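Session log. Operator J.P. requested a structure for one protein chain; no other inputs attached. Running the standard single-chain path with token output.
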Amino acid sequence: MHVMVALDESGYAETILRWMRAFPWPKETRLKVVHVLEPLDVPDALGPKRYHQLLRQQREGAEALLARARKLLQKTFSEVETRLREGLPIYEILKLLRDLHPDLVVSGTRGVYGAKGLVLGSVSQRLLTYAPCSVMLIPAKVQRSDGLKVMLATDGSRGAKAAARLIADLPALEEVMVVTVVRPLDPRDLLLEGATGTQSRTMRAQILQGRRTAARREIQETAEVLRSTSVPIRTRLLVGHPGSAIPQAARRERSDLLVLGSRGLTGLKAAALGSVSLAVAQLSHCPMLIVKPAS
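Structure written below.
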């Protein structure tokens, strides 16, 4: 497995490094740790001498961060490489993703749960929309238990099954809970103006029953991918909107990791259709892994 992690110079980088060390990565996982130096926004009154001094301090801080990351992670990963780039973070990170072709990119979400959610235009939000590979987001306040309890949310898509296959390859899991969401009926789902009261109730019951049947099939098909492992598997049907029902369930179950499969859309298509991943990330209290199927 090839993983790229993007760090910044805040104390929050330590949270990401601790998670990277504690997570049960597959054997022989290779790691690229990258940091992007943003252009300095300083007043002209400081003068060129002070400006270049600040540039030097910025670079020294970034180099120290990358050196610490290498030292902390080299015992966990088979290979650790660091890269320092200059420019706007999201553009440089996306360039590296296209050049390096990692299986997964890891980033932080300082704005998640308990604050204002993902900031529009933030690195994490744009990675969910534009990254060509799977994405793992680590919130600022995350605590790891001794084991790793995973909640896998499935919609029966290729992405969900790819997520199950990835989880099946992870060592030392405590349990996996597979969930799916049954959406409640919405007036826009029904065109029953001409139906009588009895006909309307019958049609509503049939639609809901059909959704529950499809949801159970989605859970069974996704869970089947995990049957070859010795990890305990639980399943549960949720009711509501996926963007709120999934993170609420993960919080109730005290999950350590929330995993979703992506339908593989990126860029304008993903933004135009709306993303369950983005909605879930607004409320998730734990790290979140969004798995994109191989093209």
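Operator note: The chain has nine helices and ten strands.
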